[in-house]
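ARCHIVE ENTRY
Sequence with per-residue tokens
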Amino acid sequence: MNNGYVKVFFFVLILFVYVNDKVLTTEHEADNTASSKTTISKITPSETASFGTASSETAVPKMSQPMFIVLTNPPSPHIASIPVIFELDSVYKKSKRLLCPDIAEIKKAKEVMDEAVTLLQYYATTEDGYKYHCTSPQGIKIYCRKDRHRPSIGKCQFQISNPNKYYDIIDILWDPNGPQNFDPSFVSGKVVRSYNRNLLMVLKHYRNVALSSTRYFYALVKKSQISEDTTIIVMASGNINDHNPFNKKIFKNEILESINSFNTDIDLDDVKNMHLKKAFVNLSGYLIRKKNDHVDVTFVNSMDFNVSFSLKSFVKNPNIEAMQNILSLQSYFDNQ
């Protein structure tokens, strides 16, 4: 074999090896790409959160390699509307320093207010036992229910036309001073004890035309998300010893009976040094429901205003007045 044939032979051999190597390299890269795409498409949310837990279908990509998650579908509307009530709202931020140190008291407060949420939802949604009482100046019908051996309970329902105000409504009703924006009978309010971000003890002062003087009350208040578009805010009073020498009366809650065993002390100069009459919340609160084109607000209210015997025949009037005042919330939001 002469030199010319030898050169041609080696040239062809080198060319064959080169082409074969390129083909193998290309196939390897294609396999890796396909494997990577397949692995990512099979990652479930739980697998992504575990970062290294093996899947029954495929292994989670190693953390040494960058992991890319490609969204092939539009975001779910449920993800976009995570309720803000689970965020640390301004009311809780301001009251964190008032956190209750008594574990037993915290447990009891949670137990009785969980029951209060259930009762509020029942009285807000049932029609049993309610009778028409009057129509407010805003045209809203107010109903009353009087069970045997129990205090009367008032209820009314109204609409706020803008559904985008749902969270604003929750915020203003959760804020102890929120009623200053719409309720002419409201004087002041503040948090006096914090149990968690959705469970507080508040002190509120009200004036009431049907009564002879300003009233104040302590109440546990709880905010509870029932569903994505439904929230309950409920208040109820236990026996709070505030060292006020002018108020020695022991109240009995005949609606939320479990709260009668809730006892604690509060020592506030702005109460014990003033000659004010204490009121008592049997059950009061709101069922707030977001609809497609409006927000439904149902207000349930039953209070003991500590009325003197001579005014007993007018005991229903303060409750009705309180219900009529809350209806100003409708015009407050509709006029914005």
Summary: The chain has two domains: 3-73, 89-334.
